[in-house]
Amino acid sequence: MEDFTALADLASRALGGGVVHANDEFFAAADHLVLPAAPGHTPKTFDHKGQVYDGWETRRRRGPGHDFAVIRLGAPGVIHGVDIDTAFFTGNYPPFASVDATALPGYPGPEELAGAEWVEILPRQGLTGDSGNRFPIGDGRRFTHVRLNIYPDGGVARLRVHGEVIPDPELLPKVFDVAAAEYGGRVVDCSNMFYGHPQRMLMPGRAQNMGDGWETSRRRDDANDWVLVRLAAPARLRFADLDTSHFKGNAPGWAVLTGITATGDQIELLPRTALRPDTPHRFPLAKGPEVTHARLDVFPDGGMARLRLLGRADRDHLWERMRQCLEP
């Protein structure tokens, strides 16, 4: 079975995820749950409420019930697994947790979410402190929100909700970035990711620094590096943004972009083209048939901050994928 942690974190703040409501966050705010960075910790760092934690921590419960936090997924989709990370919580982590999910249109608030129909996608499970706690999810429906329940109280550093992005076609323009992670674009193969994973190229916004992109090791042979992206839907591509921002002494010298059709035919979309360091490039692409994948070859190696592929997606494909995950 595929490692679900290789899939997008649908709850991540990097994709627009956020905490809508938490019943208690006395010691540390629930907003920490969806931060994209790994949790950190500085021992013996105290504020007016005690040790400072990079996570969500509730007070000690002295009555019945349990604590919970409701998270809006930044990218709605089918959840394949969750990681309830208790990093640095040792004597104060919850011994058990469960996860519920729901799908609602629009932008519901705490009151609407409280009255929603929730589905238990992860029954109550035991947790280990100061550790990742990974659980596969078998429900194939599309969800927009999750609810993390902890029993009875305690601290959780991060909640990762890994899955397949399923965008709402009603909210997509005719031409959009079909490689974008927020719409379901995904790296499925690459030659090298020594310094940075290529999936970072598909994230929203401009790269923050050289570490926020794809970078290969230095080649000492006659070959070149490449990455293969599965598009959010079959599409006719029109423009490519190849952004080498922050890569100054280590940008690729040239690039080629190839489209791959559903039958496996390869279409040259961008011939070998020179790139400049630390530069957002936009290139018009050769008109061709619908492609399901795009392969970016860089010569001979180097770093790429962002890859955008703008095109017209197959709307029927998007709607069919949406319909497939509306029922169990």
TrEMBL record:
Pathway: Nitrogen metabolism; (S)-allantoin degradation; (S)-ureidoglycolate from allantoate (aminidohydrolase route): step 1/1. Keywords: Hydrolase, Purine metabolism. Gene3D superfamilies: Galactose-binding domain-like. It catalyses: allantoate + H2O = (S)-ureidoglycolate + urea. InterPro entries: Allantoicase (IPR005164), Allantoicase_dom (IPR015908), Galactose-bd-like_sf (IPR008979). Residues 16-165, 184-312 form the Allantoicase domain. The gene is alc. Signal peptide: none annotated. Pfam families: Allantoicase (PF03561). One of its GO terms (molecular function) is allantoicase activity. The lineage of its organism: Bacteria, Bacillati, Actinomycetota, Actinomycetes, Micromonosporales. One of its GO terms (biological process) is purine nucleobase metabolic process. PANTHER family: ALLANTOICASE, INACTIVE ALLANTOICASE-RELATED. Its EC number is 3.5.3.4. Belongs to the allantoicase family. This is Probable allantoicase.
